[in-house]
Design brief:
Strand 2, helix 2 and strand 3 form a beta-alpha-beta unit. The chain is of the alpha/beta class and 274 residues long. Helix 1 crosses helix 7 and helix 4 runs parallel beside helix 5. Strands 3-2-1-4-6-7-9 form a 7-stranded parallel beta sheet, sandwiched between helices. A two-stranded parallel sheet has the order 5-8.
Amino acid sequence: MPSKVWFITGTSRGFGRQWAIAALERGDKVAATARNIDTLGDLSDRYGDLILPLALDVTDHAAATAAVDAAHAHFGRLDVVVNNAGYGLFGMIEEVSDAEAHAQMETNFFGALWVTQAALPYMRAQKSGHILQVSSIGGISAFMGTGLYAASKWALEGFSQALSQEVAPFGIRVTLIEPGGFSTDWGGSSGIHATALSDYDGVKQLAEAARKSRVSVSGDPVASAAVLLKIVDAGEPPLRIFFGEAPLAIAKADYASRLATWEKWNELSIEAQG
């Protein structure tokens, strides 16, 4: 299979780093972005000309466009774009500040939008390409304590589903990766925690108990890399795919509940149209 040119955001750690390594190991070329490219020094030493480290804060629209342009200018094409940069915002809806809410959307949603928009002209011109958006089980189901994170991923899911239909005539594919619990830094030092309100202490205990019941085993980001390569190499890649065992059961229960509610209230739904 011919080698591919990748553009991956958030490659300093977690999924982004492991996926970049997997692509490089098989001889693909990778434009690897990170806020601090010093974190990519060991990859540059190991893979040489196969990797192009690029400093990027995805919340900077102009910088995102410039980074995509630089990658294309350097490698001559863009085959795979992975919007992986993102972080978790933890807090009840009432606890989240205006600045925290805006920052969450700027990174998780707008960052992916800016990179996607910058890459599309190149992919349309070459009549091929694959855009992978790192969503979450939180992109289809919302949980207490991560409402704004869910909002950012639901927005990502919406624009990506529409995008997949818009760009299919140009030979461009779109895939939403929806991981469950993985051993990344998402909930660690990279996460942001809103200032707590004591009135929610009891609710948070319920939220933590619910989280533990959903997540029994954390996935391995290293293992996910081989699966990602299979998706990229597939002739007809999926629009959506879960990573991990837990998400499918969560989705089935959530969607069954939604369908039951819509059915129960359908008479009023019909009445509302006049």
